[in-house]
Amino acid sequence: TLGRIHISLATIGVGVFALASALSAIYLVEERALKKKKFDAISFKDGGAPLESLDRLANRLIWVGFPIFTAALVLGAIWVSKLGESLDRPEYPLAGVTWLAFAGLLLARQVYGWRGRRAARLTLLGFAAAVLVLMIYLLRRIV
Known about the structure:
By secondary structure, the protein is mostly helical. The protein has four helices and no strands.
């Protein structure tokens, strides 16, 4: 059904964003350790991952997850309208914020050359919005 496809795509999209966010968090930790010259940090065991590689892989993952998440949003909107529900629940605009954060990130990377710390922070912000959507959805189901 439409609902199951929406939920499956949303789960896959957010899962891919979670991987990109994990890489972004590692990027920020390693960059900070490098700046402070703390080479004994956990992140630098066995040399750590090169920052550029972390950034590049996170970007690739976002390019994979974004169209999947976009399809999930479109199908979700269709599903909600077929159920006759309104789009005034808090998770709906927050899902839009998630989409805008990742769309903005992809645009900023392409047009303005955003890399590194800026991109990592925006990735984490977008993922935080996605987690909030999930929490609101689950709380609504429980209550």
